[in-house]
Amino acid sequence: MNRTLAIIKPDAVENHRSGAILAHLEREGFVVRAARLVRLSRAEAEAFYEVHRGRAFYPDLVEFMTSGPCLPLVLERDNAVAHYRAVIGATDPAEAAEGTIRKLFAESKGRNAVHGSDSDENATREIGFFFPEHELAGLWGQA
Ligand code: ATP
Ligand code: MG
Hints:
The structure is a single chain. 44% of the residues lie in helices and 15% in strands. It has 143 residues and is an alpha+beta fold. A 4-stranded antiparallel sheet has the order 2-3-1-4. The mean pLDDT is 97. It is built from 8 helices and 4 strands. The chain has one domain: Nucleoside diphosphate kinase-like domain (Alpha-Beta Plaits, 2-Layer Sandwich), CATH 3.30.70. It is globular and about 45 Å long. It has helices spanning 10-14, 18-27, 42-48, 58-65, 80-88, 101-105, 120-130, 133-140; strands spanning 2-8, 31-35, 71-77, 114-116. The longest helix is centred in the last third of the chain and has 11 residues, at 120-130.
């Protein structure tokens, strides 16, 4: 079993698609290990997407990700990073395969419903960005 960091982005939360997306992910065998509804500050969105700083779409991306609440999730299953990326489909919904989350729920390449980590290393970094280790352990530890 391993983990990935997913975010249901502000467009999908605003359009009341969170439940449908969670149901889709649970049908795919992902277990929700942690979840939080958060409104990112500009500094947080800039830091989360630091790797894209300098790209033409970066200001719009930061603007969009701070435009309303989003729902970060820690998802677990075998081959979590690769399987999740297959389930969400291509970044641009126009290029996403039939039945993928972005094909079903995304509006555009910018407003594309969900985020997913792109490697195990980045999954660890991104999970830590939203969920402190002691909080994660406490969720599923002894009551
Ligand atoms: P994510 O990291 O959100 O899971 P991704 O890995 O498929 O998506 P990245 O290349 O990491 O895509 O880009 C991060 C995000 O930036 C994309 O999800 C999208 O919202 C936005 N983005 C990327 N390229 C463009 C573009 N050319 N025009 C508009 N938005 C873009
Ligand atoms: Mg990415």
